[in-house]
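Aim 2, interim progress. The first record below pairs a target sequence with its structure tokens.
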Amino acid sequence: MGRALSYTVGLLLLIALPLAAAFFLLSHKPKGLLFRPVPFSELPGWVADDLSRTLPALYKSCDRILGFPENRRIPGARIGGHARDWEAACQDVLLATDDASLRHVLEAHFQPLEVSVGGNPVGVFTGYYETLLHGSEVKTARYSVPLHTRPPELVSVDLGTFRADLKGRRIAGEVKGNKLVPYADRAAIADGALDGRDLELLWVDDPVDAFFLHIQGSGRVQMPDGSLRMIGYADQNGHPYYAIGRTLIEDGEVARENMSMQAIRAWLADNPDRMDALMNKNASYIFFRDLGESDGPFGSAGVPLTARRSLAVDRRHLPLHAPVWLSTSHPNPRGPMAEPVAFNHLMVAQDTGGAINGEIRGDVFWGFGEEAELIAGPMNNAGRYWLLLPKALADQAVGE
């Protein structure tokens, strides 16, 4: 989410929440992480994919990169190099208009690298989506659940700026006296810790929808007049995420193999008297901002996400904005769950997430609507990916 945003709701994501912002760079390649150059012909489904569907995502990332100073590092893993390393490739990407021309650009400028850990290229891939809520600018009997903006006293600290061994770690809180102390947790906020301060961005009609919005990190709110307001991640209260799906599994309420976002929703609907207590186990609380007429939720790369073509990754291992060839599968939204649908497509690494941890780990952004929710909710599928880097950078990555 992040992802940011990157916020996901596959099975693993119900056990460890993705947070929309993970602000760190890896100083060296992790032990066991391997990059093996392969020809494009080795990518599963390379010939069959309509690459033009990835052009909107590539345009956004290349526009972003070309706006960087040439000596600026590409965010994420250092194998992404600097903006100058991407200039020629991105200029040609922006001239591509269809499958054939993009295919030519990619094959001319990029080298696919199989990503593996100790020779094992298989990892786990999940999904996330943009949720729909119903809300109002004013509190009413129906619209009584607040979505809060970022409190001005909230202080976010990137610990890596103080000590190199703390890179990737973040805390948040508020200053009282001369000390930084923990901020209010979800239970305290639900009990009114922020009341009376005019921090409510919007009011929605369903506490469960609001809770899952905190997981997704962004969504659309349908107003009483039928208009849609897009809102996205602004900040987080600093408390660690606790996945309520884990509690349901440990208490025997839901079998591990049946765990999904839909299963949690069903349990909450069937147990309204226990709903608040369960949700409050997750002390993490998200603050939102109004995205106005944006053409999509923003990922950690700072660009709007593209449905089915934006991928959340672990930026310790992959650079943001990089093309990625993904080969996995996803649940069939209209058929038997036991019959997954093959998914072999060109993606762009444009988001991150707290649960997106690992060398071979990704989260597919499925977009907005019912079908996106049906796919993303239970998605927890094995797969592989290949990182596409400009050839000079690929040579360096292989040689490390």
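The second target in this work package is listed in the same format:
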Amino acid sequence: MLYYAIVFLIIALIAGFFGFFGIAGLAASIAKILFVVFLILFIVSLIFGRRRPL
């Protein structure tokens, strides 16, 4: 998930550099959404992931 967020961020930076601001904005918003989803899943896995055996 974090990999795809970084890929979309790089696409947004390259598209913005070449002047494709519509594509850059879309790719940047997708990257933001994926990063937020990654953070939520990461925090949930930290809380519930490691349970001690009984």
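Residues 12 and 25 are 7 Å apart (CA to CA). This observation will shape the mutagenesis plan for the next reporting period.
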